[in-house]
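Checklist before submission:
- one chain only
- standard amino acids only
- sequence pasted in full

Submission:
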Amino acid sequence: MRDYIVALVVFGCLPLILRKPFFGILVWSWLSLMNPHRLGWSFATEMPFAQIVAVTLMLSLLIAREVKRLPAVPLTWLLAFWWFWWFVTTLTAFYPAAAWAEWDRTWKILLLTFLMIALLTTRERINALVWVIVLSLGFYGVKGGIFTLLGGGVNHVNGPPGSFISGNNEIGLALVMTVPMIRYLQLISESRWIRYGMLAMMVLTLMAIFGTQSRGALVGMIAMTFYLAMKSSNKAGLLLLLALAFPLALMTMPETWYSRMDSIQAYQADASAQGRINAWWTAWYVALDHPLVGGGADMFNRQTYALYAPNRQHVLDVHSIYFEALGEHGFVGLFTFLAIGLGALVTLNRVIRFAKPHAALGWMRDLASMIFVSLIGYATSGLFLGLSMFDYYYMLIAITIGLAGLTRRYARDGVPIEKPPGVPPGVTGHRRRAAAGAVPAGRRLPLGVSRLASWFARL
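Returned file contents:
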């Protein structure tokens, strides 16, 4: 039944994608992050839904009259160079077949990232993408939090099989990055029930992070908490959230969780930690031997360890975004990867400074602040996890560039007044929606359908 529901939703969205290209970005993001087809039982699990949506999106872009322009900010050029350098290191890879297989996935992620950047031109579109991100990954946060509470944290929380976030470490990283995005939606929501719902989602997502028993996720969560404690203007709300989630999580987790977390300090006696350090040294020695291009994608295997590893018998994946970039793409690749992350943080700081004096841009300030926190979580948790090509991370980079583009436009044209365009003063209710172009004049739709039509018209 699940397979048919997912297929019906995806194929039902294709006509809407042809009409509105950005709707294709939302559907692709939902498929990429939530992987709903992986929750099925039969044909949907292997169905190339993301490719079908991507092809439809490309066709929609060809026929759409909308102006498509990439913001000319340094972060855009860094992303373009990262894409180019991936191609170069794939050409020179130790193991060409494996590297080209990784390239086949990488270029698709980066292509969709650039399409996303070109289409993230309004507040409505940016917020719509954030909602898709939160609902897609928040599903696993709520599900994992309930699973942890009911099961006492004995079993690990895992993601959908066959996806980027299938393992406990991967889903832990994704949930760490999602908590600040949930907080953003709580800040901007006018409905009291949505705010309460977002609070519940945050608490359960924090429980799910504990339930992954991922040490990297715990480090990222602690780093984000310290940053929020220093920077948050609403410390009372943050303390309330922590007072709800942390004691509950600590009381729920079993003794095995405490033993696993204690191994962070006693890493010398932990085989997994020693294996990661061995992999990091391997990446370092490969980079010293091939400083410009490294060994190419997917080079961490038994043959490479036999040549470069201090301990040639302990073969383990690199488990670090930084050493992954260093070993596979050389020092040029590492510096480019670091420049993208640092450039995103600098860009977000500029957006925050620009938006701070303007009450109408409070949403922009809050979003930039929460993305900043999310990237801190990625940077710290990623030290222990090899997801340098995590599509979620590049979505946040795309939103950052979209915010930078809006900042440039507002600086040039002035900060907009919060009202729908083309609506005469004093016009309210159904007549206001009709005047804004969401509902044809003289035709009355049910309230829910009318709001959905209005939202779709603004995309």
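Reviewer check: Residues 420-439 have pLDDT under 50 and may be disordered.
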